[in-house]
Every structure is written in C-alpha cells, then in structure tokens.
C-alpha cells in the first residue's frame, strides 16, 4: 500500500499549475483550525517540497487538510479519490513514526 507521502505527491501532480498555486495559497491560511504554512516556505516549493511541508506541519492530519483544500479549489474528483485513503490514525491511517500503514 502507498504511504501518505506517495499518495499526496501523486495527488498534487494531478493539479494543473494554476490549481497548484491556489492549493498553496489556501495552505497559507488556517485550514480546519490548523495554522497556515508561512508564505516564504511555500513560495518556491515544488510539489514534493509542499508534501514535505504539509507532513511536517499537519502530521497525521495531512490527508484531512489536503481533502479540505481540494474541495476549496475545487477538485472534488481528487478529494473523492483521497477519501478512499484512511486519514484517521484510529482507522488504520497514517502512522506517525514510519509514515506507513
């Protein structure tokens, strides 16, 4: 099974350039009550860097945050695909220490 990092990277690769800019813009503000990622860190971040920043800042909540932002840009098709990936650690989702299931 793919790790959250791999799934997120694949999801961000499916965004067009303007969609990716909107995605990062939303990450600068609060999402689901989590503080934003500083603009200075996101400004030149590519898709891989963005995934790493999200995992650093949102940890086990990264999939939930990603789904919320995808709804806002709107890319409901990608949000729907991510809904199949467990995002709750109690449901067998992201394991904090290893990044695996």
Automatic annotation (TrEMBL):
It comes from the Eukaryota. Transmembrane segments: none annotated. Residues 1-88 form the Pyrin domain. Residues 78-101 are annotated as: Disordered. InterPro entries: DAPIN, DEATH-like_dom_sf. SMART domains: PYRIN. SUPFAM superfamilies: DEATH domain (SSF47986). Residues 78-91 have a biased composition (Acidic residues). This is Caspase b.
